[in-house]
Backbone:
């Protein structure tokens, strides 16, 4: 993390307890994981919105013949 912010938040106890059990991490790590999931979900939604709008002209057979690095 480049920069951190200290916050105070009122969270539902049951929700926090369950999240801690699921992640097996501490409070900070669990909250960071949750916030990252929110960010990824938004990016995924944006990518889905592009479905059918981006047209790529690829030759898959030729692409598969390329030597690997």
Residues:
């Amino acid at each position: 993390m480049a920069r951190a912010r200290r916050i105070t938040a009122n969270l539902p106890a049951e929700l926090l307890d369950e999240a801690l059990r699921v992640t097996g991490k501490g409070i900070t790590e669990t909250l960071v994981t949750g916030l990252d999931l929110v960010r990824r979900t938004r990016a995924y939604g944006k990518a889905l919105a592009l479905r059918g709008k981006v047209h790529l002209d690829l030759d898959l057979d030729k692409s598969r013949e390329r030597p690997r690095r």
Q: What stands out?
A: The mean pLDDT is 91. Helices lie at 13-23, 27-49, 60-65. The CA atoms of residues 3 and 32 lie 13 Å apart. The chain has three helices and no strands.
